[in-house]
Every structure is written in C-alpha cells, then in structure tokens.
Design brief:
The complex is a heterodimer of chains A (52) and B (266). By secondary structure, chain A is mainly alpha-helical. Chain A has a domain at 18-52. Chain A has helices at 4-39, 41-49. The longest helix of chain A is centred in the middle third of the chain and has 36 residues, at 4-39. The mean pLDDT of chain A is 87. Helix content of chain B is 75%, strand content 0%. The model of chain B is unreliable at 1-9 (pLDDT under 50). Chain B has one domain. In chain B, α3 (70-97) packs across α8 and α5 (140-159) packs antiparallel against α7 (182-192). Chain B is mostly helical and 266 residues long. The chains are: A mainly alpha (52), B mainly alpha (266). The interface between A and B is medium-sized, with 27 and 37 residues.
Chain lengths: 52, 266
C-alpha cells in the first residue's frame, strides 16, 4: 500500500477524535446523572416510592 | 430558578410548537430512548465504511492508495459545514423564538464542529503533502475552511466570555449568523476561483464524478460520521441539561440556607 503513514495518520486522527468525544460525553452524562440523583428532590421521592 | 420558559406569551409565530420540545424532562426522555440506537448505528456504519474504504475499495490510478484519505476527509469536511449550519439554525431558534435548548445545543455543537473542522484541515494536509508536495497552500478552499475553524473558535470563546450566560448565548448566536456567509464561499470557492483543490465530486443535481466502488464506502462513511456527530451532540446536550438543573437546585438550596440563617439571626 502506498502512502501508508499518511493514510494511517488520517484514520488514527479520526478514531482518536471520535472515541475521545464519545468517552468524554459518556463520562459527563454519567457524572451529571449521579449528581442529579443525589440532590434532586423529585428523584429522591421517586426512589422512596419504589418497593424494596 | 430557570425562567427561560416564561416568555412563551411573546413568542414569534411557530414558537409554541417548537417549545413543546423545549421541556428538559421531555428532551431527556426522548434523547435517552434514541441515543443508544444512534450510537450503535454510528459505530457500525463508521467502522464498516472505514474498513471498506481501507481494505476493499480500489486505489486510484493516479493517486494510488492516498485516495483512501477521502473516506475521512470528505465526511469531516461535510460535518465542518453542516455543524456550522446547525449552529446557525440554533442561533435563529434562540434569537427569534428564545428556545432554551437551542442555546445549550449551540454551546455543545461548537467544540465538536471545531474538532471536525480541524480533522478536515489535518487530513487535507496529510493528503496534500504526497499529492501536491506541500502540507498547506493558501488556496481559496483551504483558506475559507481555516476561516470556518476560526469562526468556531470565536463562537466557543464568545459564549463563555460573559458572567451572564444569556448574554454569551446572544453574542454567540449573532456571530454564528454572521459567519454563515462563509458557507457558500467554502462551497463555491472551487468554482469561483482557480484553485489547486479539486472541484466538487458529489453534487445534489449531477452524477458523481467517481467510480461506484469508491462512492459507496464514501457515502457509508458520510452517514456514519454524521450519525456519530449527532450522537455526540445529543449526549453533550443531555449532560448540559442535567448540569443546568444541578446548578439550579444548588442555587435554590443555597438561597434557602441563607433565608433560614437570616430568619434565625432575626
């Protein structure tokens, strides 16, 4: 395959960018959901209503 | 408390139907249901398209295997422009209808769009060096995309530059609308000026000027990248909606504690 370093560089950049943004968004959503569950009175009431 | 929905009586025509989707709880429910499918489709199509382009699609008779860079470069270029257009749509929704989710979406689209614009410029350089013999030329297409990158950076900085976030949203929306003038310049730069960059391969009305064996993996990558962009933005907006609710609750708790302290002191 010709120009392999240039091709791998392009594909690598795309994967790093995509995976980086996806992981960042996933962690951010998880962090926000946990914090919200801890302080949101509506969610606390719903948890108390759940059986068990 | 978030009072951004209180101005519904002064909405422009069409604003009421748009505001049905401004309810944060409804947005979180809808996006939570759609996001897993969006993410899976994006991963399958992107990885499938990239593998198709890398291992199955033929090499170009002039460019050799360097043509495989288009399977990253073209989707990134498409998303650089489409991302800015979506930023401008959010700006209209924000300025005309005061749609509260449009402001959050604009803030979250900015960094993702800037990153895809940077990817477009970087992969263009990686293609340009072996083909043109230069990492960069001050060609009209390249320069106008660089201007787009700076517009994204300006928007990212501007929406975060004010203590009052609403003022930042308004300033960012105006910049987004002003910057839209750059999109037709990018699109038609290869027709208006004598550029080193090749003319458009894919057009809405004409037949594509590339072989079908290269066209299908390219279209797969474009669709996969687009769904990935949408999934990332939806996830970021979900996080932003929850973070805004957290800030509101913490503020309400702090104000309640202050009120109790003052009552106790009196």
């Amino acid at each position: 395959m010709t120009h392999l370093p240039f091709i791998l560089g392009s594909y690598g950049l795309a994967l790093v960018l995509g995976v980086g943004f996806a992981v960042d968004a996933w962690l951010r959503v998880g962090r926000a959901r946990r914090r919200l569950a801890a302080i949101d009175p509506r969610q606390q009431r719903e948890r108390r209503r759940e059986p068990g | 408390m978030d009072t951004s929905l209180d101005n519904s009586r002064t909405l422009a025509p069409g604003g009421r139907s748009l505001h049905r989707f401004a309810n944060p709880g409804r947005f979180l429910r809808l996006s939570g249901a759609v996001l897993p499918y969006l993410a899976v489709a994006a991963v399958v199509l992107t990885l499938g398209g990239l593998a198709w382009g890398l291992f199955v699609a033929p090499a170009d008779y002039q460019q050799g295997d360097a043509v495989r860079i288009i399977y990253v470069h073209v989707p990134a270029a498409w998303l650089a422009s489409a991302g800015y257009l979506s930023l401008a749509v959010c700006a209209v929704l924000s300025l005309v209808w005061r749609h509260p989710l449009a402001d959050l979406a604009a803030v979250e689209i900015g960094p993702v769009g800037a990153a895809f614009t940077a990817l477009c410029l970087a992969t263009g350089s990686l293609w340009g060096k072996p083909m043109w013999g230069a990492w960069w030329v001050w060609d009209a297409r390249l320069t106008s995309v660089l201007v787009l990158f700076f517009l994204y950076l300006g928007h990212i900085a501007l929406v975060r530059a004010f203590d009052d976030p609403v003022r930042g949203y308004r300033a960012g929306a105006i910049l987004a609308l002003v910057g839209v003038v750059n999109l037709p310049v990018i699109k038609f730069s290869v027709d208006w000026w004598n550029t080193l960059h090749q003319p458009s391969t894919l057009t809405v009305t004409g037949a594509p000027s590339m072989h079908v064996d290269m066209l299908w993996p390219l279209l797969t990558c474009i669709l996969g990248f687009s769904l990935g962009f949408a999934a990332i933005v939806v996830a970021r907006v979900r996080a932003a909606v929850m973070e805004r609710r957290i800030r509101g609750l913490l503020l309400a708790q702090a104000q309640g504690a202050d009120g109790r302290a003052e009552g106790g002191a009196a």
